[in-house]
Design brief:
Shape: globular
Distance between the termini: 25 Å
Order of helices and strands: HHEEHHHHHHH
Strand order of the largest sheet: 1-2
Structural class: mainly alpha
CATH class: Mainly Alpha
CATH architecture: Orthogonal Bundle
Number of strands: 2
């Protein structure tokens, strides 16, 4: 019983500490989360018929909102996007490229740019619910929120951007089924697994009481 009480208090103290951090320390923590996303972006696998890779980023994006909370979850992913555009080579490399070799505005304007925008939106969404609603921190609540964040907030801007890139930049005439086959279908099973792991992690690390007092 004492162990459970100690664990609960530790979770509460950590999230309370995070909530009360000075802005400079929050920026430093957000930069650390951005680095984690950039690191997991290097773990990528390409499939022959799609310019969009399978990466480990999704897990980091979902957890970023939980760890950083509202606003700062999104800010951490915005830092990732802005620094990547500025030249930090931590976007997911294209097929055949070495790790830590993809950065700059050209990459954001490429086929995966919409997913990066979706990362920011998803982290803002999950951070808001994690901070504001204690009941959202349970496994099934978080599972539902993360499924929505992944398959709506990330996939929709990602697919829209991918479709525009295919039709306007690559010169390929791609209809909606073809775009979905390239930008969604190959990733569904893996993303569901990542969402389940992320929801389990969120339940384990978040306190079940309000730390915004």
């Amino acid at each position: 019983m004492e162990l459970v009480t100690t664990i609960d208090k530790t979770r509460y103290d950590i999230f309370r500490w995070r909530y009360e951090l000075a802005i400079t320390k929050k920026i430093a923590l957000a930069l650390g989360v951005a680095c984690l996303v950039g690191l997991l972006a290097q773990v990528r696998f390409y499939i022959p018929w799609s310019p969009v890779p399978i990466t480990g980023q999704t897990f980091a994006v979902l957890i970023a909102g939980v760890i950083m909370g509202r606003r700062w979850g999104g800010i951490s992913l915005a830092i990732y996007a802005v620094l990547g555009v500025a030249g930090v080579p931590w976007f997911a490399p294209q097929a055949g490229m070495p790790i830590f070799s993809a950065g700059g505005i050209g990459h954001l304007a490429g086929p995966t740019g919409g997913y990066i925008i979706g990362f920011i939106i998803a982290a803002l969404f999950l951070g808001y619910f994690t901070d504001k609603y204690v009941r959202a921190r349970g496994f099934f609540s978080m599972l539902g929120l993360m499924l929505f964040a992944n398959f709506a907030l990330i996939y929709i801007p990602g697919l829209i951007w991918l479709g525009m890139w295919l039709n306007l930049v690559s010169g390929m005439s791609a209809n909606i089924p073809a775009i979905i086959a390239m930008g969604a279908t190959p990733f569904i099973v893996g993303d569901i697994l990542k969402v389940v792991v992320a929801a389990t992690t969120a339940k384990a690390i978040t306190p079940k009481e309000d730390y915004r007092q």
